[in-house]
Design a protein that fits this description.
52% of the residues lie in helices and 3% in strands. With 258 residues, it is mainly alpha-helical. It has two domains: 46 residues, no CATH class; 172 residues, no CATH class. It is globular.
Length: 258
């Protein structure tokens, strides 16, 4: 067959999949990224390089995703108003193609921001809930080893969602302040997005209060509550010594240790 004069279309350039040590990170089954131009392709060709899949979404990493990664991503949105680098990580520019480095950076930054938001949530949101009617729990951990399964289950179905609601609330407030500062806190007029921040903030506050109240109540049913004046450590009520020390005191002094 005569192929003279027919332009040959180069085959797409592909490299071998690259396995990344990114346990727990969520990526598509095949994640395309741009690489350098290959010498065998036509001018202007930007071939794709595919990265192997990492982990599927499971109960183990779902809690981390909603408790830290998602609130951290919302906080990074606020940071992007002042950082061109973060704007590039989040794909704020059409010219910025996704890269493995950018994905890892934004994931690690989101986890760090999410942990920071969780700390602020513990300092502020928890305190507000306790001051407005949710009592501080006094759980009895004396038989905790027999109730670990119930403790873990309540953490999955209640506390992780509380961390999401509370952490996202903190991140929303932070992002709203960053946005107002970037636009002019007092000079810029209020927009529909400001109303959206307010509505979402109220929703997340209500969600955090409900899940926190249910978690405290139901974990109290599982662990029990200590009596007033009781100590959370396993101590002897008469001497104040811990049970291990009391056993050593009661041991026959002529007996070899161990």
């Amino acid at each position: 067959m005569n192929t003279a004069g027919v332009a040959t279309v180069p085959k797409p350039f592909r490299r071998d999949p690259v396995s990344l040590p990114t346990r727990g990170l969520l990526m598509p089954a095949w994640y395309p990224i741009r690489t350098s131009k290959c010498p065998d392709c036509a001018p202007g060709c930007l071939p794709l390089r595919f990265v192997a899949a990492v982990r599927e979404l499971t109960n183990d990493n779902f809690g981390i995703l909603i408790a830290y990664v998602l609130p951290g991503a919302v906080a990074l949105w606020g940071v992007s108003y002042f950082s061109p680098a973060v704007t590039g990580w989040l794909g704020g520019s059409a010219s910025n193609a996704p890269t493995v480095g950018g994905f890892l950076y934004v994931t690690l930054a989101a986890v760090g921001a999410g942990l920071t938001a969780s700390t602020v949530r513990w300092m502020v949101v928890d305190t507000i809930h306790h001051l407005t009617g949710i009592p501080r729990p006094r759980w009895d951990f004396s038989q905790f080893d027999q109730k670990v399964a119930g403790y873990d289950k309540l953490g999955e179905v209640h506390y992780k969602y509380y961390e999401f609601y509370g952490g996202t609330l903190v991140s929303l407030v932070f992002s709203w302040v960053c946005r107002r500062l970037a636009l002019g806190f007092w000079s810029a007029p209020l927009e529909w997005l400001d109303l959206a921040f307010l509505v979402l903030g109220g929703i997340f506050f209500a969600g955090s209060r409900d899940t926190y109240r249910k978690y405290n109540q139901r974990l109290t049913m599982v662990l029990g509550e200590m009596a007033a004046g009781a100590s959370s450590s396993a101590t002897d009520s008469s001497t104040g010594a811990c049970n291990g020390c009391k056993q050593l005191e009661d041991r026959d002094p002529t007996q070899e240790p161990g």
